[in-house]
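testing teh design pipeline on a random one, pls ignore if ur not involved
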């Protein structure tokens, strides 16, 4: 081969490898909820922005219902780490069985409002949590939000822990939830979201706790969930994340494109998740009330009784999560 030909061949090889990374036809993005829930909307937005900004080169496809792990949302993180799933927009609750520190957001009454949540996720503590997620083998890119989890039930008005006595409440499959509701005197039963929906429909459980956007999207008043207590005891952020090997397969430019698309989709997702649920705009709550649902807002004193009832769970889990991280979060909240 002539020297010039060889150089030309090498040059085209180099150019080729710079341009044509081995992109998959499709990157599978796992979520629990589909659009039009805010969660699904956030994931769809990520896919949309990524497609747009990569001129269709990078194709994210959303698989809701954690169908890639047969609906077992507590296995999503493991599947993401192992590469069974390429990407996910996942709840901190569902990933907490593998990443203990993510239980931070489930500490009862740690975050009194959205500003508190932002102070954690958008600050130093949020960065520390992303480092921890990364150490667990998954690359986190941005935050979004499921929301503050309010308790609903078909039986009775809840204003104090005693009102929960004997209530059969579906809780997520993360142990801290069992601990909290047992401490409050309820009768919690852990099940996946896939199982929760039929259980609510048939009345196998009396109640559940989830953001109000889920309540309204599913018209839970038609499932007999006629009592809501607004107590804002915990909120679950969502994290956009990518399997490490999949992440490494992208060029630096495409990594930046994916990250920025996730950040923008996250901001959009947070806006949608909070719509009608802020101090200035209570329209979602008004809409629920207009359907004849009994919506109770706890006073500070009433909240205190639930805080007291769960104080030992908070302490216990603070030790498991890491007192140092929890202290930093408490400080971020105090200084918000
Ligand atoms: O299972 C739930 O309650 C849900 C949909 O909120 C989560 O995935 C954490």
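output:
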């Amino acid at each position: 081969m002539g020297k010039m030909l060889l150089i030309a061949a090498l040059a085209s090889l180099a150019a080729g490898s710079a341009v044509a990374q081995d992109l998959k036809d499709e990157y599978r993005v796992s979520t629990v909820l589909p659009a039009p829930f805010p969660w699904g909307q956030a994931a769809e937005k990520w896919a949309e922005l990524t497609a747009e900004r990569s001129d269709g080169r990078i194709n994210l496809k959303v698989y809701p219902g954690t169908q890639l792990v047969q609906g077992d949302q507590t296995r999503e993180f493991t599947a993401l780490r192992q590469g069974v799933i390429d990407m996910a927009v996942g709840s901190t609750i569902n990933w907490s069985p593998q990443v203990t520190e993510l239980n931070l957001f489930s500490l009862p009454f740690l975050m009194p409002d959205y500003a508190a949540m932002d102070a954690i996720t958008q600050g130093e503590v949020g960065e520390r949590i992303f480092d921890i997620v990364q150490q667990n083998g998954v690359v986190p890119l941005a935050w979004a939000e499921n929301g503050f989890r309010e308790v609903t039930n078909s039986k009775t008005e809840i204003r104090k822990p005693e009102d929960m006595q004997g209530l059969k409440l579906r809780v997520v499959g993360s142990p801290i939830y069992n601990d909290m509701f047992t401490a409050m005197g309820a009768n919690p039963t852990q099940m996946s979201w896939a199982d929760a929906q039929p259980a609510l429909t048939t009345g196998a459980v009396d109640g559940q706790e989830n953001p109000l956007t889920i309540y309204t999207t599913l018209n839970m008043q038609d499932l007999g969930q006629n009592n809501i207590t607004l107590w804002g005891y915990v909120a679950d952020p969502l994290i956009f994340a990518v399997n490490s090997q999949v992440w490494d397969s992208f060029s630096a430019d495409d990594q930046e494109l994916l990250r920025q698309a996730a950040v923008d989709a996250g901001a959009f997702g947070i806006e949608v998740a909070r719509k009608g649920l802020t101090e200035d705009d209570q329209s979602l709550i008004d809409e629920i009330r207009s359907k004849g649902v009994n919506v109770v807002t706890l006073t500070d004193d009433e909240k205190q009784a639930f805080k007291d009832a769960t104080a030992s769970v908070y302490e216990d889990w603070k030790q498991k999560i890491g007192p140092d991280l929890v202290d930093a979060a408490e400080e971020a909240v105090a200084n918000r």
